[in-house]
Give the backbone structure.
Amino acid sequence: GGTESSANATVAALDADTDRPISSNDEADVMAGSGCKYDILTNRHDAATTVVDGLVTKEGGELNARFDVEFTPMERIALTANGNLQRIFSSYYDAPVHVHVDSCARRREDAHLSPRATGFDRGSIDDNFDPTIHRPEMFMMNVDDAIWDRIVRIQVHDRTICRATSIISVRSPHCIGLIEDGSVGLGQMFRYLDKLPTFSLLDAGRAAKKEEEDSANEFRGGLWRTYELQCEELTCLIHEEFHRDAWNII
């Protein structure tokens, strides 16, 4: 496991099921937004109170105050999307949405011993995403577990409106085998298991603007969020960056 060929096989399996328009019967990639069991809203400092079984907000709202950011109404909808982000964008633009898998590779086994070791090129991911802060326990895993590093893009009208960087920890030897031989893609594992994952919103904010990058980096000034999808067999830590004009690209 973990070879280049098996990583490519995994990507191929994912592409076969995700690189296509979203339709009424197509929610292939849960990790790019298609269906979760609960909304569990936790604040960035892991406060003791969480709410399970439905999205509950305090009177007058709480997201802007919690993250100290003035989110727009559509940004707040995206922020609390519990796996249905693709459908939100598809409905908003009345257009098909595509998910493109840029990379998906199993991490080498000795990387489990180093919290800083990931399969990502550090320059390719958002500075706001630090897995060692959000979920350090993901790196304290059984030697029989496996971790994949994955990057996908959500596109509409041939424009990338969201980029998702994921760390997927798989604890089931059966699931690891299915992913390694290309039988089931990572994005389809929850569906294969017939399980709806729990959702936890861990952190959110707005990417800082830098004058010299404004024209080159379309994500500067946009929303970002970090959240978790989890069931008994696997945990997915996902960081999404949104185009600064995600709701006004046409």
Q: What stands out?
A: Residues 1-27, 37-60 have pLDDT under 50 and may be disordered. Residues 135 and 237 are 8 Å apart (CA to CA).
